[in-house]
């Protein structure tokens, strides 16, 4: 756990004066696991977490995937006489 905290030391920067600094996070007796997960997440993880919350986007991407698979299968199965 301390190795992970040492690695994120340079990554954690407060956005404004009301945000906690890294030293305040480190010195607190209980480090919130959600904050640690958020601060160590990659850009793709942040995008995916946000995308998963948007139900309409998930439904739309599922329908689009089905259409694309259907189209590719029809092209493979279509025989020109």
Kindly summarize this structure in a few lines.
The protein is mainly alpha-helical and about 80 residues long.
SSE diagram, text form:
Layout: H1 2-7, H2 22-27, H3 33-39, H4 43-53, H5 55-77
Shape estimate: elongated
Distance between the termini: 66 Å
Oligomer: single chain
SSE succession: HHHHH
Count of distinct structural domains: 2
Q: Please report the total strand number as a whole number.
A: 0
Give me the number of helical elements: 5
Work out the helicity level.
Answer: 55-70%
Strand content: under 5%
How would you describe what is shown here?
- With 81 residues, this protein is mostly helical.
- It folds into two domains: 1-40, no CATH class; 43-81.
- Helix content is 65%, strand content 0%.
- It is built from five helices and no strands.
- The chain has helices at 2-7, 22-27, 33-39, 43-53, 55-77.
- The longest helix is centred in the C-terminal third of the chain and has 23 residues, at 55-77.
- It is elongated and about 70 Å long.
- The termini are far apart.
- The mean pLDDT is 77.
List the defining traits of the structure above:
single chain; 81 residues; mainly alpha; 2 domains
